[in-house]
Design brief:
By secondary structure, the chain is mainly α. The chain is built from 13 helices and four strands. The strands form two sheets. A two-stranded antiparallel ribbon has the order 1-4. Strands 2-3 form a two-stranded antiparallel sheet. A hairpin with a 4-residue loop joins strand 2 and strand 3. The longest helix has 24 residues.
Length: about 240
């Protein structure tokens, strides 16, 4: 495997050069197969397991969608692969319905072939993979927070308690998303660009400083492809 900077250069070259993309995919087939194996719980079989094709496609989509501010490429690709496979299992609904045929049973009225349609209560495959993907994403998010000297308990303790303060933090998030250079600055310096965000969002600097750890966590969730975490934030 290449060093981080060399891999990023290869990914950027592969965005517009199909031969470079093919070469990168061949180079990382071990990684691609390993990602498929996580969900199959065995080595994937080419031409038989649809998961391998999905992982290949997701890896190529990761090449096209990757930007430097989204963290390490392989971690970014892994998250995209998880989401793709979760979507696949959701659409397949492989175990959503099971039909069982019983032998003809005679009763007082007639001889009938009883057909029971037993609906599975939940798609266990989908649930299992979604739990695994969520756990992995939270673990990775926690590691990145630690790079900023922040723990999950710090974030919980630093959450806004009043609706007015929460609205102010939302304005800061909107300002950061509309000005991605500020998100890049956050990742580069490991510091919240309070002055710039305050000017753009019209939010008091003291409010931002009081909730600095919370704001850093929320902004990070929107910079590195944390799809599941962002989904929960959108829902909230």
């Amino acid at each position: 495997m290449n060093g981080g900077h060399e891999l990023v250069e290869q990914v950027y070259a592969a965005k517009t050069d199909t031969e470079a993309a093919d070469s990168l995919i061949r180079q990382y087939m071990g990684f691609i197969r390993a990602e498929a194996a996580k969900y199959l719980h065995r080595a994937p079989i080419e031409g038989q397991d649809e998961e391998l094709s999905i992982v290949l496609l997701a890896f190529y989509e990761a090449i096209l969608g990757y930007e430097k501010n989204r963290g390490a490429f392989l971690a970014y690709a892994s998250r995209g692969i998880r989401c793709r496979l979760i979507d696949y299992y959701r659409k397949e609904k492989r175990h959503a319905e099971v039909t069982s045929l019983h032998e003809p049973v005679s009763d007082e009225k007639s001889d009938t072939l009883k057909i029971d349609h037993l609906e599975h209560p939940e798609n266990e495959i989908e649930k299992s993979h979604h739990r695994s993907a969520t756990r992995d994403e939270i673990e990775e998010f926690g590691k990145q927070l630690l790079e900023f000297g922040i723990s999950f308990s710090d974030v919980a303790d630093n959450c806004p308690r009043q609706e007015r303060t929460l609205q102010a933090c939302r304005r800061v998030l909107t300002a950061a998303r509309e000005n991605p250079e500020l998100l890049n600055e956050l990742l580069r310096t490991k510091k919240l660009p309070i002055a710039a965000l305050s000017d753009i969002s019209k939010t008091d600097k003291k409010t931002m400083e009081r909730h600095r750890k919370y704001l850093i966590a929320i902004l990070l969730a929107f910079t590195n492809g944390y799809e599941i975490i962002r989904g929960h934030l959108y829902h909230l």
